[in-house]
Amino acid sequence: YLWDGAKTPEIELSRVLWTAEKASDLQSASRRWVPMPVAAEQGEYDPRFARFLWREFDTALPDTQPKSGRLDDLMGQDYPAFLLDPRLQVASTDAMLSPTHRTQQIALTGLNYSAKSAATLEFEGQIVRWSLVNQGLKPLEFSTLDLTVPDGAALTSVVIKQPGLAPIDLGVDGSRLRLDGALHPGTAATVEVGFAEAPSRDESQYGFNLAFKNGQTIEFLSRRNLPIQGERRDSFFPTLIRADELHRAGLTGRGVGVAVIDTGAWAHPALALNTEGQSRVLSFYDAIKNEEGAVMVDENGHGSHITSVLASSEASYDQSGTRTGSYHGIAPDVDLVVVKAFNDESKSTYLDVVSAIAYVVKHRDRFNIKVLTLAFQGDAVSHYWQDPINQAVMAAWDAGITVVVSAGNSGPDAMTIGAPGNVPYVITVGAVTDHYTMDDQSDDYVATFSSVGPTLEGFAKPEMTAPGGHMMGLIPEASTVTFEHPEFHDGYHYYLMSGTSQAAAAASGVAALMLQDDPSLSPNDVKCRLMASARLATKNGQHTFSVLQQGAGLIDAVAAVASKETGCANQGLDLKSDIAGRRHFKGPFNSRAQIEKDLALEDSDQLVLSSTTAVFHQAASETEAVLRAFNTVSVFDEAALKREGQYVTLESLAANNLNWEASDLVSQGYLLNRSFQGLEQLAFDGQFGIDAQLLSSYLIGL
Hints:
By secondary structure, this protein is an alpha+beta fold. The protein contains 22 helices and 36 strands. Strands 14, 15, 16, 19, 21, 23, 24, 25 and 26 form a 9-stranded mixed sheet that branches. Strands 3, 4, 5, 7, 8 and 11 form a 6-stranded antiparallel sheet that branches. Strands 6, 9, 10, 12 and 13 form a 5-stranded antiparallel sheet that branches.
């Protein structure tokens, strides 16, 4: 971790850091010298301490010295108490101890430079106010302010106000105003604009763009931001699908095991502990290294964010600082099985993902795993039954695990559902965004990035939608996401991310709530009730989005738990025959013209959810019509495929009345007219043929 090659005490860098001279220098300082830990038997330097010093975020402290003593030496007495909690088995530090900065405190939260704009403007008489806050660790020096106001409005003053400081008068000459001063960490500022007469209250007519000398900018965009919140805050999305009501009724996912296959997870207390402060991570398995570990890690950050949306046990607070009785995660008390199959770039191989799924299925009884979250997508390049990950996913479903998969972020074009979202059995989830109006669902809409069905075999996808726009979650500071996307930072350890990954995590949480309420539910039962109780997007009585965009509609957690529907999902399919390779299946969509007809609905960014009460009230005929699109199934004739020994052929598609254009298939990356070359004998409760090319393919975490 400090050097390339073998970690030995002879490495020069370790001598530079830990010579007697350096020790003497440090001993004379106010902070006591921290000796390099010595292994008891070998008498050599312990390389684990190097990991602790050098930004290795989720690393257990060496056993050669008590945790409290080591932290005291490094940080004085001001470190967060949770770092000493033995239930976490983790020290979350973020900076190395430097002889030249030996009195500097180690930073634990936030980014160096991070600012946030208020979500709305404040209007008072002839004054318009725009607020912002420095959420980072360092001061932000002002540079310029670009200001746009309604046409014809006469300015009288532009002033920046900060508590305890003299106002900064910018004058009114020109649209770009230069200014001095700085916005200090944790400090709020208000840009106050005065007019000769009361100005328009239409926020879309105003523009504020404040640039700082470090190159960062912050701007006001109407309906493009969440409110500024402190450390005690609300995540909002549980309310959108009414999970908050279930939290207050005592349904929090307790006793239900949920596995997450992703980049790992951070051992933050809200992820490692449930709402009662009890350890709830049953296992951390690294599929890349093929080993179980005592300490969770996540170098990328994506997995931590997904796990946070699903299961964060942080309590929610409203804007007045009052507890709401809800939590940040959809199912804050689930037991977690965290499986790391993706690296720091959020990439993985097919073999590692199949290995990860195999681990979950093998240990399903040991950890009571009822739900599996797969928040990633690979290109669908073959029929669903030919893909090795899809085969593993079907085996997991057959083993009694409800598998929830992200639809993909390749929308809004049709036929963009990836693998394993194209598996007809599983729950594939698209994303809805609330348009930054958390209390108003009338302007919510299916996100444009959300992938759209159908699949190659004509199945309708996604089955449903869930919140997936600007979702707030926890990410460790020293991770790929935080370094590459500092604009995601929302203060403290919170980050805003959008994607169908987040939607899949939210849907997984609802499935866990359902299973806590009724542990006897099968995966097909969970899928059926989620779809039958979902709320369709409509306008003037007509569907605003196609079934290929919104599926059965937006998840309603209360209605899903209350539903008694059975037998309404995966009708006509035969999972065991599919896994065994005896029969495969196709859906009702078969041509580009049919898709375009189905997508030609009333074009609107806004939707109205047709059910807003605890009991599902949609007309039975309308529900049946939607579910019929998912349950219209017939057997796929494989004769031409088997005769040619290929992945995908136009001949076989035509024989099944699937009239796709060759150009569409090529542009989507399908292995058209390519010979099937398999590697046999991959054990996973059965045998699979794996294409050598697929083994070297990469999946991209969404």
